[in-house]
Design brief:
The complex is a heterotrimer of chains A (about 210), B (about 160) and C (about 725).
Chain A: E1 13-14, E2 17-18, H1 42-56, H2 59-62, E3 72-73, E4 78-79, E5 92-93, E6 96-97, E7 105-107, E8 112-115, H3 137-145, H4 155-164, H5 166-171, H6 190-202
Antiparallel strand pairs in A: 1-2, 3-4, 5-6, 7-8
Helix pairs in contact in A: 1-6, 4-6
Chain B: E1 2-8, E2 11-17, H1 23-30, E3 49-52, E4 55-58, E5 72-73, H2 82-93, H3 103-116, H4 122-129, H5 139-152
Chain C: H1 8-17, E1 48-50, E2 56-60, H2 69-81, E3 88-92, H3 114-140, E4 149-151, E5 154-156, E6 162-164, H4 165-172, H5 201-206, E7 221-226, E8 234-239, H6 241-244, E9 249-256, E10 261-267, H7 270-279, E11 281-285, H8 294-305, E12 310-315, H9 320-323, E13 329-336, E14 348-353, E15 358-362, H10 367-378, E16 385-389, H11 405-416, E17 422-425, H12 428-433, E18 441-449, E19 455-464, H13 475-479, E20 480-481, E21 484-485, H14 486-489, E22 501-507, H15 523-540, H16 545-552, H17 558-570, H18 572-576, E23 583-591, E24 594-605, E25 608-619, H19 626-640, E26 652-653, E27 656-657, E28 676-681, H20 696-711
Parallel strand pairs in C: 2-3, 7-17, 15-16, 19-22, 25-28
Antiparallel strand pairs in C: 1-2, 4-5, 5-6, 7-10, 8-11, 9-10, 12-22, 13-18, 14-15, 14-17, 18-19, 20-21, 23-24, 24-25, 26-27
Helix pairs in contact in C: 2-3, 3-4, 10-11, 15-20, 16-17, 19-20
Classes of the chains: A alpha+beta (about 210), B alpha+beta (about 160), C alpha+beta (about 725).
Chain lengths: ~210, ~160, ~725
Amino acid sequence: MIDGRRIAVCALCVNLSLVAHVTTAADSPISAQSRTPATTTRAQGLLAWQRMYSVLTHPRCVNCHTAGGYPQQGDDRHPHAFNVVRGSSGFGAPAYTCMACHQVSNADATGIPGASGWHLAPLSMKWQSLDDQVLPSATVCRAITDRSKNHNLDGPALLKHHKEDALVLWAFSPGPRSDGTPRSLPPLTHADFVAATRTWVDAGMPCPTR
Amino acid sequence: MALQTIMVNGREVSVDVDPGTPLLWVLREELRMTGTKYGCGIAACGACTVHVAGVATRSCVLPVSLVGKRPIVTIEAMASDPIGRVVQEAWVATDVVQCGYCQSGQIMTAVALLRNTPRPTDAQIEQSMGGNICRCGTYVRIRQAIKQAAQQVRR
Amino acid sequence: MRTPMLTRRAFVRISSAAAGGVLLSLYFDAPMGAQQPNAPTFPPQAFVHVRPDGTIVIQVNRLEFGQGVQTALPMILADEMDADWSKVVAELAPTADVYKDPLYGLQMTGGSISIPHSFQQYRELGAKARAILVAEAAARWRTTPDRCRTANSVVYGPGGESAQYGQLADDAARRPVPDGVRLKDATEFQLIGKRVRRLDSRPKCDGSQRFGLDLDLPGMQIALLARPAVFGGRVKTFDDRDARALQGVRDVFEIPLVHGTAVAVVADRFWTAKRARDRVKIEWDLTGLERPDSSQLWIQYGRLTRTPGSVAVSRGDNAAIERALPANRIVAEYEFPYLAHMAMEPLNTTVRFDGDRAEAWIPSQAQTMDQAAIAEVLGLKSDEVAFHTEYAGGGFGRRTPLDSHVPREAAAIAKRLRGIPVKLVWTREDDVRGGYYRPMFAHRVEMVIGADGMPAASRHVIVGQSWIVGSGPPWEAALVKNGVDELATEGTADTRYVIPDFHVSAHHPKVNVPVLQWRSVGYTHNAFVMETLVDELATRAKMDPITYRLTLLRTDAKKLRSALTLLQDKIAAWRQNLPRNHAVGVACSEYHDTGVACATEVSIENGRPRIHRVLLTADVGRAVNPLGVESQMQGGVVFGLSQLVAKGAITLKDGAVEQRNFDGCRPPYMHDAPATIDVHLVPSTEAPTACGEPPVPVISPAVVNALFRLTGKRYRTLPLA
């Protein structure tokens, strides 16, 4: 039985504009293990993974999942301008951190994106090669499910991460560029991304073989 | 326009500006503190660098509405800061400045570096200072001055 | 003992030869107050004022924009004056005839002339100041000046008497300047030739230094201009309703530009003016305007390089090239894009118009011209415009366009806002997109190599815009000969290399992009061409590149020879410890009587050149402040790298500049520069020569000459990818 609860999340008051971000999700306290295996097949899980992969490799996400010593920016994913570096922690260099410019929310007036704790994903979560090519679906899936690389997150924890993490949420509300035009969005809404993640987790987090 | 209170160099000040106004212009025009400079307005050059809650921050892209209660420290306060003083002395001793327009930002960044990393390597200096532009080309002397300051900074 | 240097007759001869009237005058009266808002419109002509407390205020007749002149010129004066250096304070002089450049008759800063043209002038000023102080002391002690001596702002008498300069100054001011003032012998210099730290360091390190952009006057308004994307565009219509709806916006109106028109937005705050400007909806009239496009221009320029232009130099056998065997010929084509100056302080001018007079505050490289331009716009005479020289955050040639367009714009706005000081600000975007670039240049060189490996013949065509052709007096007559602008061919036409058959010609196409001098001007591209070609010949001749240059140079190329010889000596150690994937490249250049040679060690990291270190030698004649000269050499090398860094250029597409800010037009950052730039000055007692510009042209060819040794490729299109 699924205990339905609606969760409304309101976040991100930015400058003059109020961005209300509402996520509704049917939240189940029942763990994936007790779910009837027949409800989500491996095939369904793989389809869900492909939908997730299309989001993960969208610039709004993959730009901070780089393999090298720098983030990327823009839809063309060029190396972040102005010699910004990853640093030893992923938060930049000691006197040139991500927070030098990126605040806890988007700065619409100046076009700088922001979310709480802006920083690069660790190198263990790189989804690109060293020459900035996005890695294949199977490779990214393996990395995400490798608990020695993913901060020891299991399925439910990954789902929670996709649901609640500030930087993940940001990708779906990335704010305007400095010229006023809106940044491009991932191919799914956040709700659909979370739903896909749930399906995938329910299916046992299958990864494609190639 | 909205009234808000920010903490600058240890003082609480109230300013009545559009909330989207970058901190840079609040400092320069509302508070008439012109030590922090406008070089580009897109965080490319570092001339606008201040410390916000101890973090070197580019004030030209920071809307004043996002500052909150975090204390702001500007170049004007460096003479009374132990590391700031050492850095300024090193800058003077090494004859770093030429036109000087970028140097407020350079010094603020260098102070943040030395506070975090008292004995920075060449690579660390380059990573932290690598986003500050100097058109006069004083980079060589900036490196020398940082190393000199590092020797003077006491833990 | 002082050597008698300057008799009164000689002094009169020099001063009457200088355009602009009185050359030197000294008054010790009321404080200058040169930069106080309430100073009279015509402050008394003075270069040095001694206060009763001993402070010595020295007027600097130049803009300080980083080159250190506010320390070097006072050093010269203070040395001859035997002043206590710790009491010296420098001020940037306002605009007045007495502050004009002694040779050019204009108050201006550029061409690296400040020390070369004012060295003698400031020595004489200091000597005369001393002479009057001594005369006063001698009179008080009833003795004669020749029985007194001076040191450290004190006059000492024969009988043990002494008096501070501050005690003597007021009375000394009333004395006439005596004849036959003596200058020091060089062996007596206390300051000149010493490494002296800058006077303006501390304020520039603690945020208290004010630049033009920092000016804050009661009631001041900020103005921004919305300008057309294509140069020369005119406003057809504009809708300012949304702009005026913002609180703090004072006015929105059209003003004329030098070419075209713009919409001025005036508000009480910069950010308000900027937001308001973004809200103004403008329809532009761009009919009939040429729309330059970089790729089209390269094609056009390329064609022009293959046709002979107006002749700059023609000596020897014009047909020698045709007769040469292909094996002995090199053909090289070069492309140099538009370059922006991008001084750190964006352009700004503040003007207040009061009807019958005006006041202006500008970090200006061309005070006389800017003052005249403001006066013209406001319907005043030049001397009705009080003009304050502000400290500038860099210049590199940008702050002295012949049309004084920024002061004109500011004056047009001030005219409408009568009685209110208005600060016109160019944003960084305005600056990057606003023109007045180092022009685009294309070169085509056909060179014949002689049997000895030296160039026997060269035919060199240079194509690039000129801002001097058609500009009228005073520069056109001085610089344009036979239709060729010297500023486009310098570095080639005046080469010190011996090339028997030598033909240089130039085309100056008219393009709808305003252009201007950029630190070291024609040498920026000509030195690159010559130094890379010479390097190529040296490689073919299997000769060391420095030895080759020394062999090829005229015997009387004294400054280049001394710089190269010193370089040869200093880099001997480099070659012994060179890592396997590193290479060394060299280049040299002579700019306005200063010879510079440079070696650089380069490797390739991640597909990009990495410059590890630079060693630079320079013969600048006598170095007034070797510490300052060293800084200029280091800074000039880094500035010169602007030509090489990827994305460092300006390009146009369909009439509009493609770049907006530092993101699109990238200057050198710290890691683009070498970690060390060692400077060695050739010891010299000759007259001081240029320091600010000479280092700029040498670094780019030196780097690509090193790259050749790593990649086997010659790089003739800048910037590097």
